Amino acid sequence: MRCCRKTPGGRDWLEWISSNIQGAELLIFLYTTSDHDWTWCVREIGRFEGAQQVRQKSPQVVWFLSDGLEIPSFIANYQYYGVTYREIERMLKDLMEGGAFTNGKPLKPNVHVDKVDDFRTAIQQIEKIFANSSRPEEFFRFRLRLSHPDPDKIAEDISNLLATGRDDRASDWLANAKIEASPFTLHIAGAGDASEFRENLK
Question: How much is the pLDDT for 136?
Answer without folding.
Answer: 47
